[in-house]
Automatic annotation (TrEMBL):
MF-aspect GO terms: serine-type endopeptidase activity; tripeptidyl-peptidase activity
InterPro entries for the chain: Peptidase_S8/S53_dom_sf, Tripeptidyl-peptidase_I
Single biological process term from Gene Ontology: proteolysis
Name of the featured protein: Uncharacterized protein
Coiled-coil portions: none
Species name: Vannella robusta
PANTHER family: DIPEPTIDYL AMINOPEPTIDASE (PTHR14218:SF7), PROTEASE S8 TRIPEPTIDYL PEPTIDASE I CLN2 (PTHR14218)
């Protein structure tokens, strides 16, 4: 699809082809065929989960003709973001979201795939039932949150552990 979609960053086929990003691109192109579409990824030189939201924000903010709408399938709990990315990261990213919004850009973020309990593999998720909590960056007042539905079995309707 490289002749239809502008690629920015690595696009490794085979090992980690970006299944979720690929699905996002298919939906966007199916809903708005012919619209200019960019697949953006950032290289992580680490085996640990790291965050590139600020990197993306600076890059898109410096473009002469940035995309008007960005859809990002990315979320983690606010507490995980604070613990994992350090104090002040959310505040810095919110400032950048505000800058991008003031440029007329719309940013749509997933509110998570695993419900408000974020049940998934650590380090970004939780293995046990915890109270519901805000998902970042969807909780930012400068972006649009797109929610996910998380189905649980009838035997454990509040929280599901695999």
């Amino acid at each position: 699809y490289s002749d239809i979609v502008t690629l920015i960053g690595p696009n490794e086929q085979g090992t980690q082809p970006g299944t979720e990003g690929n699905l996002d691109i298919q939906w966007m192109m199916g809903i708005a065929p012919g619209s200019p579409t960019i697949y953006w990824s950032n290289y992580a030189n680490s085996t640990k989960e790291i965050d590139h939201i600020l990197t993306w924000q600076y890059e898109i903010g410096n473009m002469t003709d940035p995309p008007l709408v960005s859809s990002l399938s990315y979320a983690m709990t606010e507490s995980t973001a604070n613990n994992f990315l350090g104090d002040g990261y959310i505040q810095r990213s919110n400032t950048q979201f505000q800058v991008l919004a003031s440029m007329g850009l719309t940013m749509i973020f997933s509110a998570g795939d695993a419900g408000s309990n974020s049940l998934s593999a650590p380090p970004m998720g939780q293995l046990h039932c915890f109270p519901s909590h805000a998902m970042w960056p969807a909780e930012s007042p400068y972006v649009t949150a797109l929610s996910a539905t998380y189905f649980t079995p009838l035997t454990d309707p509040i929280c599901y552990l695999q």
